[in-house]
Amino acid sequence: MRNKKALKGKVISLLLVTFLMSLLLVGCGSKNQGDQTAPSTSPEVSAEVTSQPEQTADEAFNVTITDSTGTEITLTKKPERIVSLAPSTTEILCALGLEDKMVGRTKYCNYPESITALPEVGGTSNPNVEAIVDLNPDLVVGATHVSEEVIGKLREVGINVAFLNEQENFEGTYSAIEKVGMLTGTDEKAAEVVAEMKQKVADLEIALQGLNLTELPKVYYATGFGESDYGAGGDTFIGEIIHLAGATNIAQEISGWSISKEQIADGDPDIIIVPSGVNMAADMATTDFYKDLRAVKEGKVYEIDGDSISRQGPRVADALVEMAQKIHPELAK
Length: 333
Prior knowledge:
Layout: H1 2-37, H2 43-50, H3 57-60, E1 63-66, E2 72-75, E3 82-84, H4 87-95, E4 102-104, H5 129-134, E5 139-142, H6 148-156, E6 161-163, H7 170-184, H8 187-209, E7 218-224, E8 229-231, H9 237-244, E9 248-249, E10 258-259, H10 261-267, E11 271-275, H11 280-284, H12 294-297, E12 301-304, H13 306-310, H14 316-327
Parallel strand pairs: 3-4, 3-5, 5-6, 7-9, 7-11, 11-12
Antiparallel strand pairs: 1-2, 7-8, 8-10
Helix pairs in contact: 7-8, 8-14
């Protein structure tokens, strides 16, 4: 009997020890599992995450465009020293907030007025190459009149030259603005400028539709007169502006700018528009042939800012609206 009690006590003791050991093992297992799921804070992992340097804006800049000469222009750094060889590109650069990056201009670049403080490098067709090189530009932008010889000489000495002689219409103007934006890292601002211009053109189109015109007035845009006459032909940029302003261009069938007195007389314009600042309106009123034109007799010779309407830049949308208001005075009310 005593032996049975002793045996029973040993069994109970053994079971108790086994139970306690099981609890201890479970506790250790939970601790190990916790160690495995905890986030690692080892020095090796931290060093690996922070070992890759971030790119700066200039290091990330890499853009290529094809200019009007068919040449690919690639820039791997935003330009800091820009020379403009055309009034239109000067106005584009300034509209994109890049006036402080410009170091040179042509003698015809006069807007905005503050730009006239920059050094001149000559005219638009044959600027002084040495003067340009001395300014140490990292980008030269030109349009329309810059000669191939000048472009070639600048490229020979390693200067990036973008020649943007785009189509003579609004689409060409938008393209020039967008390409300058790409080259200078001001894409977003260029998109804003183009969007604003397009909105002005669209608003004018709606306003003209509201006039319910049954017949379009005949318009002649004159840039020179005397022994020879010059006006905007149908294939010129100003020719497109006349059309968009809700008028018929009497020189629509003319290519370029040369027109004869016979063609002017046959066109019999209702309105003549001339660039301001050259006294053309007053001179026409006292000059043979011109003083007998119906538009001159009726006092319908109007002046418009010649720079803004002839330069394919951001101001040309405003020039379009101005011309439309000259032709259709009711639009200005």
